[in-house]
Write a structure and sequence with these properties.
By secondary structure, this protein is an all-alpha fold. It contains 6 helices and no strands.
């Protein structure tokens, strides 16, 4: 059974807050950008996600670092092509269009739970 969205979000918020970003004093330089980017990737590697594309062929989990690095750099590091995760970044429909009047209650509940998980991870 998955956690509710509110509980998962609260836990993730607390986890990220435990690792504050380094301060940048004065005008940011390129090295400051790289330091912040490295820190963000470190935080996002630990993210608990349900995306299939966040796990490489060797079983290594990459969390949400694709959101920080961008498609080209992410693919260079992970060997996961952009086509594998583009679909996950589009918002899923709010309801399953395959549910109709003939759908059994069991199938309806099952499809709704799957749709809820898709919406949660989106």
């Amino acid at each position: 059974m998955s956690k509710s969205v509110a509980i998962a979000a609260a836990e993730e918020y607390a986890r990220v807050r435990e690792s504050p970003f380094p301060r940048v004093h004065g005008r940011p330089a390129w090295k400051d950008y790289l330091k912040l980017k490295k820190h963000a990737v470190g935080v996002l590697l630990e993210s608990d996600v349900g995306y299939d594309w966040a796990t490489g062929a060797t079983g290594t989990t990459y969390g949400l670092m694709g959101y920080v690095l961008g498609a080209v750099e992410y693919e260079d590091i992970t060997n996961i092509p952009q086509a594998d995760y583009d679909d996950s970044m589009t918002k899923p429909a709010m309801y399953d269009t395959s549910i109709n009047a003939g759908t059994s209650n069991y199938q309806r509940d099952k499809k709704n739970k799957i749709r809820d998980e898709l919406i949660r991870w989106w």
